[in-house]
Amino acid sequence: MKKGKKILCVMVLAALAASGCGSSGEKKKNEDVFRVGVPHLMTTYDHTKGFDGWSTTRIGVGETVVKFDADGKLVSWLADFDGNVFTVKDVKFSDGSRVTAKDICDSLTNSCKKNIRAKNVMKNSSWKVLAENKFEYTGEKSILTDPLFCIAKGNLYTGGKVISYTPQKAVVERNGRTYEYVAISDSTTRGMSMETGEVDAVFDVNPMYYKNRVHAEVGGARTIMGRLNMRSGRPLRDPKLRKILVECIDLASMEKALHGYVICNPNYSRYTKSNRAYKLAKVDKPVTLELLFFDSRPEFKIIAEATQMQAKAAGIDIKLKNVHVNALRDMELGGDFDIVLSSTTNIQSGTVENYYRLYFDSNSPENTTKYNNPAFDAATSLQEMQDILDKDYAVIVYGNPLHNRVSKKKLVPLNPLDFYYDVDEVK
């Protein structure tokens, strides 16, 4: 028995030793992975599909000809530019092949063939190859920052290499390191993932998680708005109801709850001023509306609940529905909503085509509310468009969200345009 026990003991110790070695190896392997907690990942990372390109750039795989830097200035990325002439930098696709001017022009053409939104925003732009490393682009350069126009050759991109991808987790190899992007839709859970050590960096969380961590915060280049469905048969087709709904929203009363998340203002963009004012009135008879939102950032739920409460004072019963962003897109396109909360980029709104027309021009494929006003379509300035939208009560504008990042180490400056999840360490 003693001999048997001794043999058993040796076997257990051997197993523990093997287990210990395995744990040490696994720990070393895990240390080579930089984990990032993000609000969500799109269905695919194919930049030509819908808005999936936002994941292509966010996970550091897709790159565009130009981009906005941390100061909101348009700068070169894959190509330098002088006027309309672009010179391709010494960059390569993930298979090692050099990027040419033809590759870039072909990629832009491919995006426009496959994505109706790309074709729409590029309708006044053109491009042609001048030499192996030079091409001419005529049009608004800021359009080129959209992830729709990531440069690719087949499934090859110029940034990192995708090892695996699902809407829950993306694993990417970039610059000799492995990055793991984990989608954590609940903002509280996302914030806690830093506390538990599950991730090394996390985006867009409650400022309470700044404590004892490196953090960066920047005014986001976005506008949070509630778009109102004006399709035939929907309640908000009635302009009187829209007026009561829009004017019952008191942004001043939301400021305290949104402090640290949103800078409240009714202006549709940084270039315009809204004439909208708070004026509570009541509907003639009870109305029930459904508001769709995706609770990926702390402010969405706060805004949804505040809107519900304020509308109740006007006799409007708003039912809230939290829908994942990938399903929300389908519901919008199908017209199955009354109000949808969205956070859209406005850094490009220095041009008429890039922003206002995208959501409210009667011919735009992204005009899911079916707003239709010939005066808006014919408008030539941003302020004129803002005035028409205000007059028609076409949208509720809440303000501009703050963008933040919490990390264990100091990382490169945070970009206000969250097309990019900046997680490279400062060298």
Characterization of the model:
By secondary structure, the chain is of the alpha+beta class. Helices cover 29% and strands 25% of the residues. The strands form 4 sheets. Strands 1, 10, 11, 12, 13, 14, 15, 16, 17, 18, 19 and 20 form a 12-stranded mixed sheet that branches. A hairpin with a 2-residue loop joins strand 6 and strand 7. The N terminus is likely disordered.
Outline: globular
DSSP summary, beta strand count: 20
Number of helices: 12
Rg, nearest Å: 25 Å
Share of residues in helices: 25-40%
Q: SS-based structural class?
A: alpha+beta
Biggest sheet details: 12 strands, mixed
What proportion strand?
15-25%
Nearest-integer average pLDDT: 90
Stretches where pLDDT is under 50 for at least 5 consecutive residues are 1-29
Between the first and last Cα atoms, what is the distance in angstroms? 62 Å
Question: Which structural traits does this protein have?
Answer:
disordered N terminus; 29% helix; 427 residues; globular; four-stranded antiparallel sheet; twelve-stranded mixed sheet; alpha+beta
